[in-house]
Design a protein that fits this description.
By secondary structure, this protein is an all-alpha fold. The protein is built from twelve helices and no strands. 16% of the residues are buried.
Amino acid sequence: PMSFPLVRFVVPATRAAAAKFSGSLVSRTFSIAAAQCSSRFFPKPSAFLGVGTGVRMLSTVPLRKPSLKEIDANPPPRDYCEMTNEQLIPFLAGEVHEAWCERLIREIMIVDNVNWDQANEKLQFIEADNKSFCTSIPLGYVACAPYAAGIALSISAAIISTPMVFDLTTASWFNENYVTADVAEAKDLETWLEVGSWTWSWMEPLLGQVSFFLLCFQFARNQMLNMNWKPYTYFVKTQRAKALQRKYNKYDQMVLEQFSVTDTWSSFAWSSLIGRR
């Protein structure tokens, strides 16, 4: 019984996802895979219950393990390159970048009439161009600046906030220059917890307001996603995909877009500051 909601959700979702890949090889194979999922992997509820079938319930059937002969006759794929088009579809729908790499390789093979190894070499150049969008100057630095600023500010705030609350020397300096509140008696500042009780009178509004500020922005971002308004990250990735599509316009535009969007930013411009590529 716990499987019935899964059946009602997965199969319609599998069929509905075919619309995303219309007009391509994936579109033709997607409907086949969806039909196979419906009949092979998700049988009717009566098959689970054993109603009217004369067969025992599925939970009472012993677990069947594959034999070595079956594995030798039909070995499982070891990598995406060994998968059929139908086997790639779930990974493509899940936006797995390695699967989209394989899909683009097959696109290159068809368009350029080359073998897999030659298409893979072409893929390396396309991937380098895709990552170069965020290594160019000044575009790469402008695109990545909000992320670098967010990392620096958040780490700095986390480190500075602790001594400002619990360290007497730091708290006294901050109070003298920015707060000018009454200093507690010496007997009430003997431990770091007592210092925290004193500083909390002015630190609580500051930390609370910052937390509420971030919470509101997070809520606004979630509503943007609900309305299909793309936040900044998706906007930058989309611009990167468009640049890749313009340069390699002879290949399928949807495949190039998904390849670019699912790619990581491991080689963005700011990586040179920390010695990474």
